[in-house]
């Protein structure tokens, strides 16, 4: 067994998401590392190590929470659960978000997305994140899950606030506002019984007994948090990579059949969820390092997704590479339950954009830091269409 190198970074202290890529390179070079921060944890960042952990979810378990530091364990259903609980909980989502049901959602999603982008164009562009990136997944939560528009309107601020508190405060306290919101939604659904997914959940059974309100709230919390900011970040990154190389826009216009590959490369290259935790249930050896039972382990999906041992010229955005196998949605037992929906949303954005004038920067973007030590995407993305340029012919911002 080799000595374990000290981890050179603290995921809660990354204020410049761009600089994090260099840190991930360093981490991969070192192999498995250990940090004394946040109660102590191991870090896996090479593709082969992260995948090995994901392939062995009984050893690298989620049931003691997926956050480092370990706070609010068991907060989110199904993310923070192991089987048998996880299996029953996850089925409540996968039965609703099936390939067939997502296909059925496409006309409604397309209309909503086209409307958002047409509105953005009509007003001369603006901050993509605030004006399209955020409303898009929030509207999906209204259409697909059944949240009220007034409820989803509060998700972003409450989530951002909770991430700020998460490294030092109990997650239950940090998420109290969101919890209260989903509690009120459940109450509204009980009283008015709209024909939607939330109402359908109210009558469900888990292991032969009725699902409890507490379980329902934790499940809805997964939609509230996982369902909005990941997609917001992914669409922001997607627009960023489009405007940073106008040739990419030209190619997609000429060959719209490249759109799905473009979406996958955006996910690989940007890794909207950069890392997530596990806890070992037994002693395990990985990369020549013995990790004792009961250790927290950080899986750095962003590091794995740019590992040159798995992806040639991994630091380059290359739509032709075939990004299949990326870990932006995780892998295996906890692989993102909304992946197909998210991919569909991103594809529909591009399908609309290729019918419009080119997009370009209208000012300096801000790529932000790692929210909650995990979430990455532009925080401010001022864009316009070339048709929105001022009449004096002023060119793109750069
Ligand atoms: C581009 C957008 C998205 C990204 C990058 C993303 C990423 C992820 C990742 C990495 C995981 C795995 C966590 C782990 O390994 O423990 C995950 C899980 C999950 N995601 Fe997503 N997600 C996205 C969109 C969505 C959407 C739109 C929804 C629902 C509407 C959703 C719902 C979930 C749920 C419920 C889980 C937990 C699955 C389980 O534990 O079995 N996600 N997501």
Features:
398 residues; alpha+beta; Cytochrome p450; 5-stranded mixed sheet; 3-stranded antiparallel sheet; 47% helix; binds protoporphyrin IX containing FE
Topology readout:
Blueprint (H helix, E strand, L loop, with lengths): L16 H14 L2 E3 L5 E4 L2 H8 L5 E2 L23 H10 L4 H24 L3 E2 H6 L1 H11 L3 H4 L2 H12 L4 H4 L1 H17 L4 H6 L2 E2 L2 E2 L2 H14 L2 H15 L2 H9 L4 H12 L4 E6 L3 E3 L2 E3 L4 E5 H5 L33 H15 L5 E3 L20 E4 L13
Parallel strand pairs: 2-10
Antiparallel strand pairs: 1-2, 3-7, 4-12, 5-6, 7-10, 8-9, 11-12
Helix pairs in contact: 4-6, 4-17, 10-12, 13-15, 13-17, 15-17
The chain binds protoporphyrin IX containing FE.
Walkthrough of the structure:
This protein has 398 residues and is α+β, with helices and mostly antiparallel strands. The protein has a single domain (11-388), classed as Cytochrome P450 (Cytochrome p450, Orthogonal Bundle), CATH 1.10.630. The chain is built from 17 helices and twelve strands. The strands form four sheets. A five-stranded mixed sheet has the order 1-2-10-7-3. The protein has a three-stranded antiparallel sheet with strand order 4-12-11. It starts with 16 loop residues before the first helix and ends in a 13-residue tail after the last strand. The model is unreliable at 393-398 (pLDDT under 50). The protein binds protoporphyrin IX containing FE. Protoporphyrin IX containing FE binds next to helix 3, helix 12, helix 13 and helix 17.
């Amino acid at each position: 067994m080799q000595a374990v190198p000290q981890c050179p970074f603290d995921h809660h202290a990354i204020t410049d998401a761009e600089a994090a890529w260099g840190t991930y390179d360093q981490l991969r070079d070192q192999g498995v590392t250990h940090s004394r921060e946040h109660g102590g944890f191991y870090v896996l960042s090479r593709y082969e190590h992260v995948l090995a952990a994901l392939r062995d979810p009984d050893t690298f378990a989620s049931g003691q929470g997926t956050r480092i530091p370990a706070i609010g364990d068991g907060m989110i259903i199904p993310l923070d659960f192991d089987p048998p609980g996880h299996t029953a909980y996850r089925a409540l989502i996968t039965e609703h978000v099936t390939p067939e049901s997502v296909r059925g959602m496409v006309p409604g999603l397309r209309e909503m997305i086209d409307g958002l982008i047409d509105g953005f164009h009509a007003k001369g562009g603006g901050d993509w994140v605030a004006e399209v990136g955020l409303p898009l997944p929030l509207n999906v939560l209204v259409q697909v899950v059944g949240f009220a528009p007034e409820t989803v309107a509060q998700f972003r601020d409450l989530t951002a606030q909770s991430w700020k508190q998460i490294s030092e405060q109990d997650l239950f306290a940090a998420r109290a506002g969101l919890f209260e919101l989903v509690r009120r939604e459940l109450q509204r659904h009980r009283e008015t019984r709209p024909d939607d997914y939330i109402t359908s959940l109210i009558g469900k059974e888990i292991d032969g007994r009725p699902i409890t309100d507490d379980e329902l709230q934790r499940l809805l919390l997964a939609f509230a948090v996982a369902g909005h900011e990941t997609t917001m970040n992914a669409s922001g990154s997607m627009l960023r990579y489009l405007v940073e190389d106008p040739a990419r826009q030209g190619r997609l216009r000429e060959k719209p059949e490249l759109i799905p590959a473009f979406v996958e490369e955006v996910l690989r290259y940007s890794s909207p969820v950069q890392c997530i935790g596990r806890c070992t249930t037994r002693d395990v050896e990985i990369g020549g390092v013995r990790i004792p039972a009961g250790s927290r382990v950080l899986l750095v999906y962003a590091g794995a997704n740019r590992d040159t041992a798995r992806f040639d010229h991994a630091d380059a955005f290359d739509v032709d590479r075939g990004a299949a196998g990326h870990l932006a949605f995780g892998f295996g037992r906890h692989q993102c339950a909304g992946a197909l929906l998210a991919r569909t949303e991103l594809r529909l954005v591009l399908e609309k954009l290729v019918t419009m004038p080119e997009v370009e920067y209208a000012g300096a973007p801000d790529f932000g830091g790692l929210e909650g030590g995990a979430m990455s995407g532009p925080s401010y993305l001022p864009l316009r269409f070339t048709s929105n340029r001022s009449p004096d012919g002023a060119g793109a911002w750069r």
